[in-house]
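Journal club prep — side note

Before the paper discussion, L.F. wants everyone to see what a predicted structure for a comparable chain looks like in token form. Sequence:
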Amino acid sequence: MTPSCRRVSDPPGLPPADFDPVHNPADRARLEEFWLPPYPDPDREPELHEHWKEMFSGPLRFVLAGSQ
């Protein structure tokens, strides 16, 4: 397996407790690392951008998904 490919059985860790992609551009740049939806362009996709902001407005609480 190449380093850029990850198996679904190897999920990423959870974002840190203070993760805030709405207000912190550094956290926004890490969205892909945690398999989270990317930041939509507010000019090209204003409705999607508003939904994204609502979804990531705090308080955030991330938990590992369970599967069998």
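L.F.'s comment for the group: Residues 46-56 form the longest helix (11 residues). Keep this in mind when we get to the figures.
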